[in-house]
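User: I'm designing a mutation panel for Aromatic peroxygenase and want to avoid disrupting the core. Could you give me a predicted structure to guide residue selection? Please restate the sequence first so the numbering is unambiguous.

Assistant: Good idea. Sequence first, for numbering, then the predicted structure tokens:
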Amino acid sequence: MAPDMSALLTTLGVVLGGNLVAVSQGGWSKYMNNNLLGLFGTPRGLSGSHPFFEVDGSPTRGDLYDPIGDNNDMNMTYFMELYNLQKDAENPNYSIEVLYEHNKNRWHQTIATNPYAWFGPASGWLVRASPYSFTARLAANRSAEHPDDGILDKEMLKAFFSVYGPEENMTYVVGHERIPENFYRRRYTDYGIAANALDIVTHSHPEVLSIGGNTNGVNTFVGINFSDLAGGVLNGKNLLQGNNLVCFALNAIKTVSPNALSSLFATLSSVTDVLFAALEPIMGAMDCPVYKDLSVNGTNWLDYNKKMYPGFKKAGGGW
């Protein structure tokens, strides 16, 4: 993973789920200092950062507000749906195309099972899609036989997701994820934000780039028209050009963060300074334009989404 991606993920993690110094990968942890740097309450961990860092429709975890309500442990059903996409393949390989097929399937599944499903420009386009990219691009084995794109076969997939046993009787063992034996990482180029953005634009099925959510129970998804955002700067045609998609997603994080973080930290400026320091070099390197304040048809982003989407209102915000 490239330094820009590592820096962004680390910063988002410690800001949204931690105390600016450390973060729990799950929920609350007794090892986290509660009163550091003006933090209100206790650090909630990554599992508690819905819908900012933890989002709906992830590859193998459930949604916070779906009927199961477990967004921490792996859902074996979702893993098997991914696994079965290559179950009968002559040479099984969970490539970027396969992962984004699973991405599409999980998007529809979330709409059909989670009455509070909601996807924003950052949470839906960037945060949600990235684990699908990471699985294909970082977990593939770059052995001598597959030095370029690598190959992610069944046994490699099982090891990374803590699944054990023969195909006819596989079991998920909590906390036993591991790097497989004889695994060779990427050797030529690190995987960074620009490469991930290209994968999202190239491999996403059109519907998963929708912004919006369920409005009145399951299967009631209503999207926000791109042209209604940012004063009409974006539309369906130019969204996928260049860095427009990821730039707008990063801008959404920057715009919404003061409101999103005000309930977590007493001294907001120290937190936004950390976050902006991570965002600005990335946005500068990608030559991102400066957008107007995030709004929908002139209505404040927060007010519009709270009125329109129960999932956004229930979570108290989102980007």
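For picking mutation sites, this is relevant: The mean pLDDT is 85. The longest strand covers residues 212-214.
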